[in-house]
Amino acid sequence: MAKSFSIKRLPGFSTIAMMTFFVLYLPIATLVAYAFNSGVSVAMWEGFSLRWFEAAWNNDLVIEASVRSLKIASVAAVLATICATLAALATTRTAAYRGMTFKYAFINLPLLVPEIVTAVALLIFFSRVKVWTGYSGLGYLMMSHAAFCVPFAYLPIRARLESMDLSLERAAADLYATPFKAFRYVTLPLLWPGILAGLMLAFVISLDDVVITEFVKSGGQDTLPTYMLGQLRRVVTPEMNAISTVFLLISLAIVTVFFFLSRTPEKDNG
Amino acid sequence: MRAISKSFGTFLAVDNVTLDIRPNEFFTLLGPSGCGKTTLLRMIAGFELPTEGQVLLDDRDISSLLPNQRPVNTVFQNYALFPHLTVAENIGFGLKMLGKPKADIAAVVARMLKLVHLDGRGDNPVTQLSGGQQQRVALARALAPQPKVLLLDEPLSALDLKLRKSMQIELKRLQAETGITFVFVTHDQEEALTMSDRIAVMSQGQVRQVGSAREIYDRPADRFVADFIGETNFLEGTLAGSEGSMASVRLKAGGIIRAGLPEGGAPKADLTVVVRPEHAELAAAGSGTFDGTLGEVIYFGTDTHFHVRLDDGGTFIVRRQNTRSGAAAPETGARVGVRLGEGAAQILKD
Prior knowledge:
heterodimer; A: globular; B: CATH 2.40.50.140; six-stranded mixed β-sheet
C-alpha cells in the first residue's frame, strides 16, 4: 500500500507541537493556578485559598467595571449583529451587482485598519460630538464597540447564508409567501444559528477590548479590561488572577457555544 | 404565452416564443441544455420577467405579478425543500402562507401524503428522506395549494434510472388524478415522449415544433427536431412530383419513394427526407427501394442495427426487432436492398 504523505511523520513534529502548546498555555495555567494562592504574591506559592475571588467579589470597583463591560458588550453586540445581518443579506441574497466586491471589502476593512487608528479617530470624532450635544454617557463606548464588532459578526452570518440555497427563498415565494413572510418563515429560522454565532463573537470581542475603550472612555467609565490595566500599574495581587480566571471561563463558555452553533450547517444541506 | 422574449445582456435566451398551453394537459418543453426552456419556465413562475411579450393565464396578463401572486407552483430541480421543517410542514407551507385555517391544512396535507405514498411520514424531518421520497414531498408541496399550473423543472434528473422510470408513471398518474395542467421541462427525449400530451421542441431560444409525441417523432418539422429525437436516417433527393400531402422524391442513393410533405408544401427542389430506422427493412439486393453494402451489424438485445453503406457514400441504419426464431441475417459485405414501408419517409422543411 502506498503511504500517503502525513505531516505527523516528519521528525520532531510532536516535539514542536508539544512545545507550542506549552508556550501558549503555560502562562495561562500559571495565572489560573496563582488565582488560588493564599499569599499576596503572584509568583510565590503559599497555599490554596479562595480569598482573592472573595476580594474581587467584594471590590465595588471590579463589580462596577464588570457590569459596565457587560452593558457595553450586550448593546454593542446586538447593534453590530443587526447591521451585520442586513449587510450579509445584501451581499448574498441578491444577484451580483456592480460594486458588491467593493462593499464586501469595505465591510471587512475594520479588521485590517490598525486599532489604534480607529481609536484615535473615534476619540477626535466623539470629543466634537460631546461638545455639540453635552452628552457624556456610555453611549459613545457602545457605539464604538458596535462599529468595530460589525465585521466579526458579519463573517459567521455570511458563511451561514452562503451555505443556504437561494432556491429556498424562491420556493417560498412560489408558495405564496410575500417577501416578508419568506424571510420570517424560511430565511430567518435557517439563518438563526449564524446570527447567534455572530452575536456571541461580537460580544466576546467587545468584552475584552482595551485600546479603543481606553481612548474613547470618559473619567469613571472603566470597563473590566481597562480597570485591570490601571490596577497592574500599581500593585499586582492574585486578585487580578482571580478576575482573569473568571473572565477566561466566561469566554470559554461563549466560544464553546459558538463552536457548536457554527458546526450545524453540515447537517442542514438537505 | 404570447411573443415572449428574454435577453440577458446581449444574449437572447428566449426569442419571440408564442405557445398555447391547454388546460389539463401534460405539456413538455424539450431541448438541449441552454435552449431557453428553463428560462421560459421561470417566466411562467415569475422568477424572471420577460424583456418583451406577455404571459397570459386564462386570458389574464400575469407578466408583471410577483411569484407569490401567481396561482402557479414549481417543483424545483434540487427540490428546495425547507430543511428546518417536517414533511407535513413542507407540504402545508403554501396553504399556511395563503392563510388557510389549520384544520383545512391538516386535511389537505393528509390527502397529499396519501397521494404520494408517504402516509405516516408527516412528522419526519425532510433531511432524513431518500432522494425519491424528497422528490415526492416536493411534488406534494407544489400540488397542495391546487395551482392552476404545475411547473416541473427537470425534477427527475437527480434520480437513478429505475426510480426515474417509476416516477414518470407516477407523475402521469398524478396529472390524471388532479387534473392540473403540468408544464414539464426536460432534456431527455424519452421522458418527453412517454409522458407528454404535447411537446414543444426548443433550440437556441426558439420553438422548433409543437405537437404530440407521435407527430413529433413521425413527422419532424426540421432537421434539428428529427436529429434530436430518436435515431434518424437523412436521405438527399430531388422533388419528382406531388399530389395532396404526399410527394415523390428521386433519391440520390437511387430509387423513387413516396414521402409526406411538410406543412406549406415542398420548400425547394432539393430535399432532405427522414426515415426512422425501424420503418425500413432489409430485402434482397434489387428488390428494395435502393441497394447498398452491409457494414456493421450491431446487436442490442431487443433489436439489431444494420448499417448499410449507400452508393452515394451515406450510411443508412435499419433496425430489426429480434425474435426467437431469428431470421438469418446477411453477412457483412453482402449487397442488400432496403425497403421503405408506406408512410415511412417524411420531407423536412429545411
